[in-house]
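Bug: token stream looks shifted between consecutive jobs. Job 1:
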Amino acid sequence: MSAGVISKTVRGFSRALGRTLVSENSAHAGGLLQGLDPRVKLIGMLALVVTAALSRRLPAMLGLLGLGVALALGSRLSLWSMAKRVWLVAFAFTAMIAAPALFLTPGTAVYSVIGLAITAQGARSALLLIARVEAAVTLSTLLVLTTPWMHLLKALRTLMVPVEVIALLAMTHRYVVLLTETANAMFESRQSRMVGRLNRREQRRLMVNTGGVLLSKTMELGNEVFLAMQARGFRGEVRLLTDFRLRTRDYLAICGFAVAITVAVVAGR
């Protein structure tokens, strides 16, 4: 690990923290989805995701993807950021899984690559899988980016999700951010005190020491946070200063979700 690699590591942690901050800011942006009751968003988005997973026709899934893009625009989210963080990543991952279907699915050959025939049926299956994943990931991301984390956890609790699951999600989210901040501070401290380059032995020692310190901090901090939360009465229930209340816009959103789901189900048969 050279000084350049340490600098890249620090920048990587900084970008991760920046993305977390952007996600929190987008949840309070005052857009279309941000103004809805979290329970309505949770149920509506989950229903759309399930519909996308069960649809068997490409137009239905493209319609759901288009709906997700429209909701992102209405919620004042950056489409460029969505493309980099969501769409391109989902496409690359899904394309690797769907690629064998192009050649292995029996059907009418439409193109040949190094002696392997791409069939029309295989191309259709690959496109269906990619569109399904893109639609589901887009809708799920919209739910997370437009809802404060604690509001989302409380909405899950109203759907009778076990307290243990809620507590686990809450602690995981907090620890990911906290440990990222700690690791970033450790690498910045190391970088500020380093002169020249590290040899391979020092590189390995640095990584082992960093991992050991993070593990030690995790165990100590976990015990301290657990005791502090218990002392303040936390038993897994998420309590907010404001209660969830359905308003006119929420009822309109329920109708909109119902119409979109119905159309997608009919078109996806």
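Job 2, same session, no restart:
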Amino acid sequence: MHFDVFNGDADGICALIQLRLDRPQASRLITGIKRDIQLLDKFTVTSGDRITVLDISLQTNSVRVKEFLNRGAHIFYVDHHQPGDIPNHPHLKTLINTDSAICTSLLVNQYLNGKYPLWAITAAFGDNLNHSAEQLAATLNLSQTELETLKNLGIYINYNGYGGCIDDLHFAPDRLYREMAEFQSPFDFIGGNRDIFTQLEQGYREDMANAQRLVPECQSDAVAVFILPDTAWARRVNGVFGNFLANLHPSRAHAVITHNKGNDYQVGVRAPLSNKTGADALCSAFPTGGGRKAAAGINHLPGDQLSIFIKKFEDFYS
């Protein structure tokens, strides 16, 4: 059996679209909300099974990776998060680059020698790698309207991945992937599935309008912290709101905090765009924390740790 394991955000979805356009493969899809990254815990394998893993941390899934390899599975792993110690095994092939200007879909685009760059551009915009997206787009002679369309689609797909559970989302990520995967380009998808694009666009605009009315919990020239209300729209918008703030104030670090369904919080951190470092180190200092240098998070921050996190966040970036 073949398993396609991918993050439920724009990067994970667009990476898999590229691979399956190039190499069609019947597979079992394993995905979830964006913060659901221990996806290898969701299934088991037997000898000879093949697994493609996209846009989730190898470090977080290392125990299962070693277990699957020991069972005789073959794994192709593509990612841009910190990997930890990569096992040396003949059945493991990795394509990992933690550079802050790269994402998984851009790595897949390189791996496929640029066969489906429009999907990679869409994903890069979704991951807020605007400069990288624009650099790749410059090689294709796209119009400004086409570029804006790809940017919006990437943002909307990424927005759809956030939430406390699948019920918070407009579309389950596996369904959204299936709706998109048959199209050679994002433009074909938008033309063939206008209703889905419109629903994502309207949801994004409504949720962002709510977020932009919020007052920061604390703010300085170096940092800003926003605590969102305990609502589905807030859980949906927390990631893209962080990206919005980062673009609006590129010299400032931002923390966007939402309520989990328990007495704890989910935290999203965006390092300053002018200095895209440190988010992973800061968040990894807390249990369930991790991510990339430019963007990281904490899945479950206990309520009594909130003030401690805010103080460390302010000290770190000040």
